[in-house]
Design goal:
The chain is mostly helical and 349 residues long. It is 67% helix and 1% strand. It has a single domain (37-281), classed as ABC transporter involved in vitamin B12 uptake, BtuC, CATH 1.10.3470. The radius of gyration is 22 Å and the shape is globular.
Length: 349
């Protein structure tokens, strides 16, 4: 009787081998972009894309994993921007306190997160259209309060000269440093959302989204999970709000105006509200339209202000053809190719 050779253990692929090649190509493009892109693309286009993507990512977390469509995220971001101007340095020296950066940054994030948590504690007691209306009403109230309050928020003018601190001797508002700063923050926020969505809390939150009664019967505190989701999303929105204030070098009531609040919803829905990468895709589409469509319209003799019409038509078209946004269109196209169907019509050859 021959002795059987021991079965060789299957070789498990390394973690980096599990990542699709397309993701590695995207990382390479983003890391090397300062080598071939100009300052306008780095600072205005990509920097703005990452910032709006982070704020929309906070909405995606609430809506995609928690089933709660919140219109307060831009207000939370603006609150963080205001706190940076108030507790840090700005052109309004009589209001700004001038605290060091390692103190005013955590304070700004904490106050913005507390603001989002309090709003969430009210909003989670409602569902559907009522949640949207409550958060929209609070966002409108925040806008009018900041515009009319001159003691703390300096009213209509807001704060100017709100710039990042010169850490390590680097001007972080210069195009290339600011690009890498926003890219790093966006990547961290994206990875954290992916990790949390697969954690016990994230899985429980998705269970609450799908069947809150069954989760309550299993012993989960449905309200606490939803409020905690608002807190987590508010931290992400606060980071985006701080970067937005630094990019514009100012913070004013218009930052949290109703049009800006609706824009975040449009960005999240257009990109895809079911996956963390969707808000960044939607933000890129929005920024490209917002930046270049006025020039295109002027070339055809139309008013540049009509760029919002293009954004609205694009939003309606994507929602009509794909409720899952651009990612949904991509998934359907790829599935049709895999089944050998025509990618456009879906018909068999």
């Amino acid at each position: 009787m021959s002795i059987a050779e021991p079965r060789k253990a299957a070789v498990q692929p390394m973690w980096f081998e599990k990542i699709p090649a397309g993701w590695w190509a995207l990382v390479l493009i983003l890391l090397t972009m300062p080598a071939w892109a100009n300052d306008f693309v780095l600072f205005q286009v990509m920097g703005w894309t990452f910032i709006l993507g982070m704020i929309a990512l906070s909405l995606m977390f609430l809506a995609g994993y928690g089933g709660m469509v919140s219109l307060i995220q831009m207000s939370v971001a603006a609150m963080a921007g205001y706190m940076v101007a108030i507790f840090g340095n700005s052109g309004m020296g009589e209001i700004s306190m001038g605290l060091p950066w390692w103190l005013y940054l955590p304070i700004a994030v904490a106050i913005a997160a507390l603001f989002g948590t309090l709003v969430g504690a009210l909003a989670v007691r409602t569902e559907g259209i009522y949640t949207i209306m409550i958060t929209l009403a609070i966002a409108a109230a925040f806008f009018y309060f900041t515009r009319q309050n001159y003691t703390i928020f300096n009213g209509y003018s807001g704060f100017n000269l709100v710039v990042p601190p010169p850490l390590f001797g680097v001007d972080w508002r210069a195009p290339m440093p600011f690009y890498y700063l926003t890219l790093g923050c966006a990547a961290i926020c994206y990875l954290v959302v992916v990790y949390v969505s697969r954690s016990p809390f994230g899985l429980s939150l998705q269970g609450v989204r799908d069947n809150p009664r069954r989760m309550a019967a299993l012993g989960f505190n449905v309200t606490a999970h939803r409020v905690a989701a608002y807190t987590f999303a508010s931290v992400i929105a606060a980071i985006g709000g701080i970067l937005l204030a630094w990019q514009n070098a100012q913070i004013a009531p218009g930052t949290a105006g109703i049009p800006a609040v609706i824009d975040i919803l449009v960005i999240a829905v257009v990109g895809g509200i079911t996956r963390p990468i969707g808000p960044f895709i939607g933000a890129l589409i929005y920024v490209l339209l917002r930046t270049f469509s006025p020039d295109v319209l002027l070339a055809f003799g139309l008013s540049g202000e009509r760029f919002k019409l293009l954004i609205g038509l694009g939003f309606l078209a994507i929602v009509f053809f794909s409720p899952d946004g651009v990612l949904g269109l991509w998934e359907r196209w790829r599935n049709r190719r895999a089944r050998g169907q025509d990618p456009l019509t879906g018909e068999d050859p």
